[in-house]
Amino acid sequence: MESKRQQKVASLLQQELAAVFQRDLPHLFPGLAPGISTVRVSPDLGVARVYLSLLIAGNAEGMLAEVRDNAKTIRLALAKRVRQQLRIVPDLAFYLDDSAAYAARMDQVFSGLNIPPSQPEDPDKDQPDSKRPKLFADEDEE
Question: Which CATH class is domain 4-97?
């Protein structure tokens, strides 16, 4: 479970990394604006795991390798943006977030299932008993 400080730093890093990719370093990744789905920060705030959503890119692994190659440049641009809020900028570790692809795959699997309609039950079973249930052992039958 993350502490409040970890959550605040992760939220700040997520916002600022999105700005770095879109405004500061668009020339490094032409035609690609990687979405930052999640940022997880270690308890000592020294390492940030950044999960990128690269759905638009055809070759997600290749784009992830390119992002990892430019990690130092990205960290430097991030440091310029958060220098007033953080004393130490965490090391960035980039990972591919495949949760959207997984959800799409599960949708495909569920839509391919052939589920037969349920059989109607005996209509007599749905009728409640006209007798009142006995609540106590000493109740008289009416």
Answer: alpha beta
